[in-house]
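Input (structure):
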């Protein structure tokens, strides 16, 4: 505790997976301090007043083997090559050595962004599909050009390849309202048509996620450009 009665920590030379275990005592103490008998205190009641709400159908998180998560997080932290056995969505088993570059959570799922040994492209592997993972202890040099934020901005987690397109579509006024409040992009433009519908023009990353989102509007959507986007 500092002189104001606030808690602070100094953490040095800890492994990421072990960090949560080492701090378990602090979490237990926090639960006691914020427990039911303290419900009347502002700090405790605040937790009952705020919540992050999902925008899609809620799903339970898939199970990730604890030893897999520990090996992945430790290798990622230390920049060590990781030996993995992976089963993809088609059921094919792949074994190899990967360069762990980043960890991301998408909804209830965790993804490891990595590069297979001998290749130059980056892949995202679902952690729950890793049958095994082993930290080799062998260091690697992180690719100078890799940036996790850019990887996300390019739509890679939405099953895209980074290609940007000009998207033009039309929606009824009542359906279009939320897109005027939460735009698709910084360059989004909206034009009100004579029939009352809204026409949107925006530069976005082409991806499967974009296609799924557009299909969610059903017959209310009129896609103007690129017309091929919903053909497959």
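Output (sequence):
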């Amino acid at each position: 505790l500092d002189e104001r009665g606030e808690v602070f920590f100094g953490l040095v030379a800890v492994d990421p997976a072990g960090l949560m275990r080492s701090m378990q005592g602090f979490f237990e103490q926090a639960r006691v301090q914020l427990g039911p008998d303290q419900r009347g205190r502002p700090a405790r009641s605040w937790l009952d007043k705020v919540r992050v709400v999902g925008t899609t159908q809620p799903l339970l998180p898939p199970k990730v083997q604890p030893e897999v998560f520990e090996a992945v997080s430790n290798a990622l932290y230390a920049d060590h090559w990781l030996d993995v056995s992976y089963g993809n969505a088609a059921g094919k088993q792949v074994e190899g050595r990967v360069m762990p570059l980043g960890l991301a959570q998408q909804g209830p799922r965790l993804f490891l962004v990595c590069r297979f040994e001998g290749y130059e492209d980056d892949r995202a592997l679902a952690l729950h599909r890793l049958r095994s993972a082993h930290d080799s202890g062998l260091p690697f040099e992180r690719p100078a050009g890799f940036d996790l934020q850019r990887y996300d901005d390019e739509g890679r987690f939405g099953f895209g390849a980074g290609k940007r397109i000009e998207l033009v579509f039309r929606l009824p006024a009542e359906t279009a309202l939320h897109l005027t409040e939460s735009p698709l992009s910084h360059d989004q433009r909206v034009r009100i048509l004579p029939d009352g519908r809204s026409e949107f023009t925006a530069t976005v990353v082409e991806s499967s996620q974009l296609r799924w989102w557009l299909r969610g509007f059903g017959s209310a959507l009129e896609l103007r450009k690129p017309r091929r986007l919903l053909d497959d």
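Notes: Residues 1-14 have pLDDT under 50 and may be disordered. The first strand starts at residue 80 and ends at 87.
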